[in-house]
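[audit] Reproducing an earlier prediction to check determinism. Same input, same settings, fresh worker. If the tokens differ from the archived copy the diff job will pick it up downstream; this log only records the rerun itself.
[audit] input (279 residues):
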Amino acid sequence: MFDQLEKINIPPEPFEFYTASDLWTDEYTSKQMLKFHLNEEIDVSSRNAAFIDRSVDWITSHFNIGAGKKIADFGCGPGLYATRLARRHAEVTGIDFSKRSIQYAREVAAREGLTIHYINRNYLDFDTDDRFSLIMMIMCDFCALSPTQRRQMLSRFHTFLEPCGSVLLDVYSLKAFSEREEKALYEVNLLNGFWSPNKYYGFLNTFKYQKENVVLDKYTIIEAARSRTVYNWLQYFSPEGLESEFQQCGFTIEGYYSDVAGTPFTPEGREFAVVAKKL
């Protein structure tokens, strides 16, 4: 038991483990995540509905969205952005890890008579011959990727974009990083039963990597029949650091914003958004 507790409380190397499938493809937790997506009042899996409406209005105006505009939404979830943009007559492709979210999104599209191409796949493995005028990755998904994964993703974005096409994504700021604190927490049925319908013992260890500007929320879930560890990594960025990653992959920064609704940029925000253009 002592050795197990020692293992739980030792931080791994930054981005040493990748466990996205444990959250997004597990039968039970994917159901929980979809419930969060569809709660229009909260900002958990998705932004609240009022913000998404405002965001889509800005995206439509800023990128001149209309008939013939091809958009790829990486990490589309249940299609909250894709549906709204398709209503504006854009040609939308949505890619997401969660089978449950994609199924829901397809049902909404069918019900509304919208033609949206939904793909159930880890977007790190996505490939296509289509070329898009706009690629989106919203809700700070970019922060969950390792440096290697981010380089691969931006290189793919560059390939997938039309000449002078754009990327829109948001990230957590160094201001948000400064507010994070290391902690160790233990609870029966941690997070109100989020991880399993059965009784479990949950450990949450938050580790902060000062040099890399990375935070890990490490969840260790112990049930009668199984034990598992889920690693939730988050990279925090300065505008200069993010710009460097884009430039290395053939992009130039068009502008920074406080969010993906086009709010003017402020360095005091916990998040910020970037529009980058393919060179």
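[audit] rerun output stored. Observation attached for the diff report: The first helix runs from residue 2 to 8.
[audit] end
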